[in-house]
Structures are given as structure tokens and as C-alpha cells.
Design brief:
Length: 220
Amino acid sequence: MKYVCAVGSLVLSLIVASPAMADMSNILTPVGNPQFTQSITQSGWAPLTSLSKYVGIRVVSPVDAFIDGVTGLAATVSGTEQYNANGRLVEAWWTNASPPSFSVTYELESLLGQAAAENPNSYAGLRVETALADVNGQIIVSRAWVFANDQSLAGVLGDDAGWLPISFRGWYLTDLTLGGANWHGGGLRGPGSNPVPAPGAAVLGLIGLGLLGWTKREAA
């Protein structure tokens, strides 16, 4: 019991001490209902600070999904754009701007020109990721979302997939790590950026070693 309390107190102190972690309940969460006009457009929220100088957006699946447009953010960071085989944008970073709300429009190549493009259920299974990077180009947080609309999430993702059982406008959070390491090692790629090992990971590693030593002393 003493070990559980110590760990719980440590985790709580880290959350309170970290301004980035303290704001995770709202950052990059879908804002408002998605709009459907031959595509799906969803707004998000990312206030401009030194920790959120850049906003990253990418599509994960299905394979024909792409980013059709982004509003509310400044210029694309040159060199961060990635395209699919048909020249469609699937990933990029943008310089953040004020106000803190932005919108992203996603489309599916298989639905272009079809009436089904206006049906919300046509986008069930769309998986996207958003992330924030600080003024040094270090990614501080990322979130992965899947759109299910009113369909069974188990049917969309599969029984073995993990997600939070809370829907945000039809979107479900599927990545609880929030660290950004899955974005090319945690560093923004582009001119002027110099990706380095995430300092948060190093701190957590030191904490883990300390806890390991503590548990060994307690067991002795």
C-alpha cells in the first residue's frame, strides 16, 4: 500500500507541475460537430504558446484518405509535407496562429464525385493524428482519433483495438500515450529543426530507475 501511495503521489505531482500535461484535457480535442459536404471537416483547439508553436496533422487510414485543406493555421512548415502515390497530402506541419481554433478537411479518393461522400457513415474508420511541437521543433503531445459516427466502434476498429469509451462528436481517442514519439522519433522535420531525444522521455526514464531502486530497497 505504501508503494502504491508513493507512486500515486509522484504521478499527481508530475501532472500538477507540468503545464503541458495539465492542459491535455482540451488540447487537440474535436470542437463542434463535423461538417459533411463531399468531405468531412472537423475543428480542433490548440492555443498558441511556446509549447504549441507548430501543429501537425496526418491521416493514418484508410489508405485513400487525404488532407484536403486546413484553415485557422498559418503557413505550412516547408519540408514537412508528405504525399501519397497520387500526390495527395497525407501529413504536414503548420505554424500555429491565433485564435486557437482550427479546422481540417479530410476526403477519401474512393468517394470523389460520389453521393456517398455526403454520408457521415462513409467516413467511419477514418483515423487521424494531431500533434503539437514547441518553438524548438520538439513534439510535446500527440493524439490519435478514429471517426465512428453512430456505428459500433468494435466493428470499426476490431475487438482487439484499444480506445476510450467516450465519444467526442463521433470521434474516439485511440492513443493514450500522448508523447509524440510516434511522429518520427518526437522531432519536427523541416528546415531549421533539429530533432533531439524527447526530454520528457529522459525524465520518465530517470524516474523509472529511481522507483526501481526504491522498490529493491523496500524488498530488502
